[in-house]
Amino acid sequence: MSAQAPGTVAPGTAAPGTVAPGTVAPGTVAPGALRRRHVATVAAAHCASAFAALGLPPYLSRLLPELGDPSAAWAGLLYVLPTLCTALAAPMWGGLADRYGPKPLLVRAQLGLAVAFGLAACAQDVGTLALALALQGLLGGTYAASTAYLGGGLAGDRLAGALALMQGSARTALVVAPLLAGVLSTVLDVRAMYGLAALLPLAAAGATLVLAPPGTGAARAEATSPAAGTAPAPGAAAAGTAPAPDAAAAAGTAPAPGAAAPAAPERPATITVWGLCLAEAGFVLVTVATYPYFVPLASQLVPGLPPAAAGALFAAPHVCYLAAAWGMLRLLRGRARLGLTLGYAFAAASAAAHLVPVAVPALVPAWAAALGSGLSPLLTAGAAPAVWLAVGRLLLGAALAFGLPALSLLGSEAAAGRKTGRLFGRVESGSKAGAVLAGASASGAMAAGALGLGAAAPLVLPVLAGAALAAAAPRFTAPRPALRPDVRQHQTPVPTLERSSP
Predict the structure, then answer these.
(1) In angstroms, what CA-CA distances link 132 with 46, 114, 143?
(2) 409: closest CA among 324, 338, 482, 347?
(3) Is the dihedral of CA 425, 468, 300, 388 positive or negative?
């Protein structure tokens, strides 16, 4: 064999300062990292798109009588219809994002919401409104599409931070949208508000169209910049060279003619997709169960509570998350499973605190009398119910502050080496399934008059489920090795050398 000429590079090996095809230098994101403006634009677009989805459902009971349902009997079903449809459609859209790219599917979701909101604005009967809300779920799914876009160009701590920001955009919409809808309802009817809301996802789609797809254009330039958070490869030369993927490449020799391409690197042990979906669904179940009947519960505990005060108490846990998210994200790095366990435990404690002033006199009057007449007033008299209500809201805020950053970190861990569209589509489906279960169980508990607790009846489930999930979380979130390597869908395949004809 002839000696290799000085300064030349053997076929199939990486040139100095480059990374061999199909491999990624440790500490970098393949093939390109998104800039902060990409992440901020996607989060703002999601917040705008979520306005009608989160702010207008409480006004369905006002709209339905105008459409021929005087008692608003369909309000409960229509409330959960978009969520159910999103749970069914999200995995399909995630798979298409892996095939055609996350950016086109994100724009599609935003335009789908605009179409659905526009149809709701034109509804003249309950059937048309139901179709519009079903299309909102089937054609929307902006959260899953946004996270797939972010997962296509970020990894590790940067992806965890972006996922936490997405949760922040959702919490902001959840707090602000009902307030804005309440103000608009004084001058507009519900259908007019849907028409106005249709403009928001259109604007979001316009903002998304100007972004570079992950791994191309401006995003690719960010991949190896210091601002992207990249680190030199361990053991790399000072010139910034990356280690070759195998010993032959490191020695500067080409693979033997006809030899198999280097095997794809094995994915590290991570949380399973099933475990992440269960973690997400469980957390939504134990936190969302308090939403539908919070205002009636607050009125039951504190008669005469001003609507503004009830709204402030509803928003308080989400404000707690927005205030604590970034600090908790740093605190929980390397402790995500502990954070999720504490999130479940705080959610159970929050539901129990809401229940105390109702459940004690309803369930254990004899027990309270046996311990002394001072016990019941301590729990139910004077300002005590308001105190318990405030404590319950603060505990729910702690649950969000621990649980949501932990889920962001686990989502970032699961994305390593997986197709992000399919992954986050399945996670979104699990999240929506948890919301549907929470809503259905809350409605069932209210209809059955469970234990005579009134509006507090739906809180029995999160107490029990939160405690069970806190105990089981270390097991179903445990990292497990991959059964087979699964390289990211956007990595360049390793070229093979064909044997030359004699």
Answers:
(1) 19, 10, 19
(2) 338
(3) negative
